[in-house]
Amino acid sequence: MAGCQFAIRGAGHTPWAGSANINNGVTIDMTSITAVHVDKTGTVVTVGAGARWSEVYRELDAVGLGVAGGRVSDVGVGGLITGGGMSYYAPRLGFVCDQVLNFEVALANGSIVNANATSNLDLWFALKGGSNNFGIVTRFDLLAFPQSKLWGGSTYNPISTLPDQINAFVEFNNAINYDPNAAVINTYGYTSKLGQWTVINLLVYTKREVNPPVLRPFTAIKPQLGNTMRLTNLSDITAEQAKNAQNGFRQLFLTRTYGNDPDFLTQVFHIANITLQSFAHTPGLFYGLVYQPLPPTITSRSAESGGNPLGLDPSAGPQVLALQTIQWSDAADDDLVNDAARKVWKQADQLAVKMGAKRDWVYLNYAAPDQDPLRSYGKENVKKLRAASTKYDPTGLFQANVPGGFKLWRKGSRLNRTVEAS
Question: What pTM was estimated for this model as a whole?
Answer without folding.
Answer: 0.96
